[in-house]
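Morning. Coffee machine broken again, so started the prediction first thing and wrote up yesterday's gels while waiting. Chain of 404 residues, entered below exactly as on the submission form.
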Amino acid sequence: MFEFIKSTPWSLASVGSAKRAASWTLDGNWHRSEAERHLKSRNYAEALRHMAIVVEDADNRRATPKQRVHLRLELSDLQRRTAEGDNSRLQAAETTVRAALAIAAGASDREEYLNCLDALADVFTDSKKFAELEKLEEEAIRLGAGLAHPDPIRMAKRVHRLGVARHKLGHPEDAIPALEKSIRLHEQTYGMHSLEIATLLSEVGSIYRAQADHSRAQECLRRALRIHENELGPDAPETLTDLQQLAGSFEDSGDLDSAAAQFERCLMLKLRKLGVQNLEEVATMQYGLANLHIGWGNLARARELMMECIGAFRCEGGPRQAVSYELLAQIEERSGRFHSAIKDLEQAGKVWEKCNPIRQMELIRNLNYRADLFDQLRKTKEASWLRERVASLESDGAVHAQTA
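Came back before lunch.
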């Protein structure tokens, strides 16, 4: 009887706790659903408010440490993913994770503590706090290795972030071993030809390129390119990015023929993908490639590219059309075709004059360039007339500046 009397209050309390838990669960689910609804509508402030209520209610209802940690990590992830460059929201995400870390440490839960470290690593990465990220990943790798059954995927990601942090801090001698280890760990987990490996290889290849280690960069980028082509297709954005990075590495290392081949291939794929509906984007790429060919001394191909992109810019008019004519004039001048260069500059000058407001400084520079070419052709009369126009424009500009 005594034992029954002792257990009765506990039983009643348990019933009350169950009711409160059920009520909290319903409230928590509703606020979480509201957070998801507002997130889909990009109403981030309301999404964060509802998720914060879920966290606060869990604290008030004395939820388990594991539940409180998980909810804070959800809130932090929401704060981080909706930051969009807002440093205050990233700082809020860091504060939220640190609170979760304190709870996990107080409960002596190593696994949850590691979850918090991984979440904090994401915040540090977005905040570009690479010194803090390096120290954190060193600690996370040490603790993760001490678990009975370490998660290989999470361990691979930690090693990769450690390599990236060291690269960003300007320590290539320490970054490279970590990056190479991260590739091996990812290969063991995902296989040699997975999209996850391709993504990693692209990133590591760009890091090697930044460190001027072009042999390793090209090896990584070639592998990434093959996987992306096979899995996503030759004109997928990832494939084009690999091509551009690979071409850039060839150019940086002085292998201009290989660079030109990759850039031309990238242009062909871009043109095939975008078609006639996005000619301006293709024209922008042609303009950039023409500049490269000029630097390499391949003036014939540069001229072809400029003739093509001017046709697209002509529909739009404005500064890009004028600048394109002027670049074509430079190509003609370097090819010894001075009369063609002057005609291209005249076309550019007409565009500058039509710009609203008129691009006076660009027009003056254009006129001086034409005058210099006439001087080289010994046409002093035409050169003098252009310089008189320049003096008039400069005088008008001085008057406007005094009256402004």
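The first helix runs from residue 2 to 40. Going to sketch it on the whiteboard this afternoon.
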